[in-house]
Structure formats: C-alpha cells, structure tokens
Amino acid sequence: MRAEWERNRERIFDLFPVLAERRRQLAGTLSGGEQQMLAIGRGIACDHGYVLETGRVVLEGPHRALMADDRVRRAYLGM
Length: 79
Hints:
Helix content: 55-70%
Strand order of the largest sheet: 1-2
Distance between the termini: 28 Å
Oligomer: single chain
Structural class: alpha+beta
C-alpha cells in the first residue's frame, strides 16, 4: 500500500509540479488555483472516484479507469 501511495504522489507531483514545490505549506495557505490542484491530486490518490456534473454523478470507478477516460483527461486535467 505504501509503495502505491508513493507512485500516486509522484504522479500527482508530475501533473502539478507547483504542489511539489509547496509540499510543506499548509493547504489553507495555498492560492485558489493551487487548492484546486490539491483537490484534484487528493482525488487521484483515492482508490475509487466520482465525477460530478451539475450535482449528478456522471462517471464512477477505480481511479485508474477515471484517469484513462478521455473525457476526464480533457475536462479536468487539460490533457
């Protein structure tokens, strides 16, 4: 489990390098955009996730499946 967390953390830092730079900073002191990156990063670190649109669940599944979904990648990760 710890090894998987380390892989997830490195992947999050690869996606959002500014979070790596600010890893010792309290979340509440991050800028609004940085807090959003952190929220996405936290979601990536969960085993199971949900994608909401206008308050409704439109996708759910293991984080690997959500990260592989082109809709999620385009809409939320800018990929």
